[in-house]
Specification:
The complex is a heterodimer.
Chain A: E1 3-5, E2 10-14, E3 19-21, E4 24-26, E5 32-38, E6 44-50, E7 56-58, E8 64-68, E9 73-78, E10 87-94, E11 105-106, E12 110-115
Parallel strand pairs in A: 2-12
Antiparallel strand pairs in A: 1-4, 3-9, 5-6, 5-10, 7-8, 8-9, 10-11, 10-12
Chain B: E1 4-7, E2 10-13, E3 19-25, E4 31-38, E5 42-51, E6 54-57, E7 64-66, E8 76-78, E9 87-94, E10 105-106, E11 110-114
Parallel strand pairs in B: 2-11
Antiparallel strand pairs in B: 1-3, 3-8, 4-5, 4-9, 5-6, 7-8, 9-10, 9-11
The chains are: A mainly beta, B mainly beta.
């Protein structure tokens, strides 16, 4: 069964500093990978996705992520964080075989705190 | 506004009571799903539907029922609420089942407390 690990439960970053959130997945075939962001009291918003092609994908709000098959990773990065980036971030994986009717598998989330 | 609408946003129940969480989307999405979000657990799939009249179980279906009589609506029913069902519930939809080239659109969530 597919699984997603986000090793960091909490991360604190100073405003203006760079950010990297880690995500490792376990899946045998070609994964479909996603990063979602959840602001307090809100639903989940898609930041970016990887299906195929260029392993470095650009998303909204200045985020990017790189798919590394050899490391089974899909880490999220941002060169300079803003206070408004404080939120919960979820990595998710889905089947690449076309049988994804059972939804996505989500990681447990990383809570990002921005220090002034 | 187009999107996924969930009601109510907040609900408090007593153990044993029943209730329905409503979910409606106006994007003509065929696929709809319910997730629950618990601290430290991420999101877990409860039930999903690939079209009107078709539903199936996800990872944590016990204690919940669903039906899909129209494309737009996908209500989640708790027949006899238990404290273990205290959670935040999210409805999500997409044109086709994930992942494919489809992206799930999430509602704002319904926070349920069972006393």
């Amino acid at each position: 069964a597919q699984s997603v690990t986000q090793p960091d439960i909490h991360i604190t970053v100073s405003e203006g500093a760079s950010l990297e959130l880690r995500c490792n997945y376990s899946y045998g075939a070609t994964p479909y990978l996603f990063w979602y962001v959840q602001s307090p009291g809100q639903g989940l918003q898609l930041l970016l996705k990887y299906f195929s092609g260029d392993t470095l994908v650009q998303g909204i709000k200045g985020f990017e992520a790189e798919f590394k098959r050899s490391q089974s990773s899909f880490n999220l990065r941002k060169p300079s964080v803003h206070w408004s980036d404080a939120a919960e971030y979820f990595c998710a994986v889905g089947e690449g075989s076309g049988g994804g009717a059972d939804g996505l598998t989500f990681g447990k989330g990383t809570h990002l705190i921005i220090q002034p | 506004n187009a999107g996924v609408t969930q009601t109510p946003k907040f609900q408090v129940l007593k153990t044993g009571q029943s209730m329905t969480l409503q979910c409606a989307q106006d994007m003509n999405h065929e696929y709809m799903s319910w997730y629950r979000q618990d601290p430290g657990m991420g999101l877990r799939l409860i039930h999903y539907s690939v079209g009107a009249g078709i539903t199936d179980q996800g990872e944590v279906p016990n204690g919940y029922n669903v039906s899909r009589s129209t494309t737009e609506d996908f209500p989640l029913r708790l027949l006899s609420a238990a404290p273990s069902q205290t959670s935040v519930y999210f409805c999500a939809s997409s044109y086709f089942p994930p992942p494919g080239a489809n992206v799930l659109t999430f509602g704002a969530g319904s926070r349920l407390t069972v006393l």
